[in-house]
TrEMBL record:
Record InterPro entries: PQQ_b-propeller_rpt, PQQ_rpt_dom, PRTase-like, PRTase_dom, Quinoprotein_ADH-like_sf, WD40/YVTN_repeat-like_dom_sf
Protein name listed in UniProt: Pyrrolo-quinoline quinone repeat domain-containing protein
UniProt-listed SMART domains: PQQ
Lineage: superkingdom: Bacteria
Domain Pyrrolo-quinoline quinone repeat: residue ranges: 215-357, 383-566
Length: 586
């Protein structure tokens, strides 16, 4: 045990280090806000600049082991600031009389190669776990770690950080879990020197992870962790949920308990790419494509085959139905030289090809959109072009090119301007809306095929836009969800997820729901972009959730071929963080 004088000396020295090395005002060094915009006001703590210095790290370690020494603890954190802190605390353990100390860190998302680990380092079942970080603001970083540990059957004994931004009453999530919060400092400790003070003393707690709670979970066999892309969206009827899997097994699960009603195995396909196609239900039949090159129509009650169309070499596209025409539309992929993609219209009753267009020079992974009002269908391809067809006979009405592909791109089947997902249609303005992998959203006149507007993001898109009222919502790999005005094509607001977003936004009960690679599903106010609630899962969320309005249950998929059945907890919807405050923990 340290003597009181030594403790105060170390604490004072560490406080001075934070004040002089970690505190950054906006007018001293402009920084990027949570909304993705540069700011020249406000402040933030760059604690990494402190813990990467030997004396400050030694003081931090001494204060940590003063609290947890002799308690047989193992130290854990999340990447990246926490890695240095865990390493430093473990390295100092022997000097503090704690031989055999060990640590681990949790990845923000599962590693895609090698050992595919979510957790680096072995979690010792004999030790109590203490999670550490440089600061705690909203607490979401710690929540993510707790969810991962709970999925492994473990629970931390405590969380510890250098600086706590808010009063402990704010952190209801931890109180409900019975996890105490230990901090060396709080913002009020810097009130006299830096002018900071604890946040949200009178503010209600943020929405806890238990905005939703699990009813059951189903995990398909042999998920492909290497493919971080949108996969098979779940589809619902009154009693079952349907989805494809990387292993080529199509599942029908009972919504009541997650038990298997039936399954169907498709043919030979590339490893890890079985069924990315999202199923569509109509009059007791479920339709989907697969990477064996076939389109399937199965009886939704029994899983028995109605018909199979052997139309392509591979199919990653999802079907679009035109019941009044009796047609199913789907994108096609071929192994032919410079005739690698296309679209087919199949008879919904027989699976026979009614018409097909096979002259797209690159792969066509995009899913078609049927514009019912005009009996037209639009689809994109990896050549960066959008194609509009007469849905009845397949006549090409126009082709909109975002950019001509190079010879090399034509040979590979991919381009930097790929259109990977589907389209949205704004009937009020007669606009076709879509996004490409280069980071542009296009607004194209449906009648002429001419561009009426364009919006540029910071990085590419792998998602389908959502039109709602006078806005379009589209999620980007630059980690933002954008709300764009359909009249001006200008940004209304953007929301930062903190991780890449492959999932497409969806509208449920007047809220936008969006998943991200952090494993978080967030409910967002479409008018303001403010968070209403959130849910944290262990794996990336690259697809849309769906809801059964009758049972009020949500079904949330992950890229690891899991599906969670969730029910909503009775909690208030509140906005979580003031926009004028920055911190390392988000």
């Amino acid at each position: 045990m340290m003597k009181p004088a030594e403790r105060e000396e170390r604490r004072a020295r560490l406080k001075r280090a934070i004040e002089t090395l970690a505190f950054v005002r906006g007018d001293e060094a402009p920084h990027v806000s949570r909304s993705g915009k540069f700011r020249e006001s406000g402040w933030l703590f760059d604690i990494r600049n402190v813990i990467l210095r030997s004396e400050a790290l030694d003081d931090s370690a001494a204060l940590f082991w003063e609290t947890f020494g002799g308690k047989n603890v193992q130290i854990g954190s999340i990447e990246s600031a926490g890695i240095a802190l865990v390493s430093g605390l473990v390295a100092h353990a022997a000097h503090r009389g704690e031989p055999g100390a060990s640590g681990f860190y949790i990845r923000k998302s599962r590693k895609k190669d090698g050992l595919l680990k979510m957790v680096e380092g072995d979690i010792d079942p004999r030790k109590k776990i203490v999670l550490v970080d440089d600061v705690i603001n909203s607490g979401k970083s710690f929540m993510r770690q707790i969810e991962v540990l709970e999925s492994l059957g473990r629970k931390p004994e405590a969380v510890w950080m250098l600086v706590r931004f808010r009063d402990t009453a704010y952190y209801e999530y931890f109180r409900e879990k019975g996890i105490p919060i230990h901090s060396v400092f709080e913002l009020d400790d810097f009130k006299d020197t830096l002018g900071t003070k604890n946040l949200a003393k009178k503010e209600p707690p943020p929405p806890p992870r238990q905005a939703f709670y699990p009813v059951w979970k189903f995990a398909s066999e042999k998920p492909s962790y290497q493919h971080v892309v949108p996969k098979s969206d779940p589809a619902l009827d009154e009693k079952r949920v349907y989805m494809g899997s990387d292993a080529g097994v199509f599942w029908a699960l009972e919504q009541s308990d997650g038990s298997i009603a039936w399954s169907y195995k498709v043919g030979l396909h590339p490893k890890g790419k079985g069924i990315f196609s999202s199923p569509v239900l109509h009059e007791g039949i479920v339709y989907f494509g697969a990477y064996d090159g076939n389109v399937y129509a199965l009886d939704a009650e029994t899983g028995k085959k109605k018909w199979v169309s052997f139309e392509a070499d591979w199919i990653g596209s999802s079907p679009a139905l035109a019941p009044e025409l009796g047609l199913l539309f789907i994108g096609l992929e071929y192994g032919l030289w410079r005739k690698r993609g296309g679209i087919a219209a199949l008879d919904m009753k027989t699976g026979k090809t009614v018409w097909a267009y096979r002259d797209m020079p690159t792969y066509t992974h995009s899913s078609p959109l049927y514009i019912e009002k005009h009996w037209q269908v639009v689809i994109g391809s990896n050549d960066g072009a959008a194609y509009l067809f007469d849905a009845n006979n397949g006549t090409l009405l126009w082709k909109f090119e975002t950019r001509l592909p190079t010879e090399k791109e034509l040979d590979s089947g991919f381009s930097a301007h790929d259109i990977k997902e589907s389209f949205a249609y704004d009937a009020k303005r007669d606009l076709v809306v879509f996004a490409n992998a280069k980071g542009f959203v296009f607004f194209v006149d449906r009648t002429s095929g001419k561009e009426r507007g364009m919006f540029a993001a910071e990085f590419g898109f792998y998602s389908t836009p959502l039109v709602y009222e006078n806005s379009v919502f589209v999620s980007s790999l630059d980690k933002h969800l954008y709300c764009i005005d359909l009249d001006t094509f200008q940004e209304k607001w953007r929301w930062l997820s903190g991780a890449r977003i492959f999932a497409s936004p969806t509208l449920i009960d007047g809220s936008i729901y969006i998943g991200s690679n952090s494993g978080r599903l967030t409910e967002i106010d479409p008018a303001t972009g403010e968070e209403r609630s959130f849910l944290t899962l262990t794996e990336r969320i690259t697809n849309k959730p769906v809801k059964n309005q009758k049972t009020q249950r949500f079904f949330v998929p992950t890229y690891a071929n899991e599906i969670y059945c969730m029910e909503r907890a009775n909690i208030p919807s509140v906005s979580e963080m003031p926009l004028n405050v920055e911190g390392a923990d988000t």
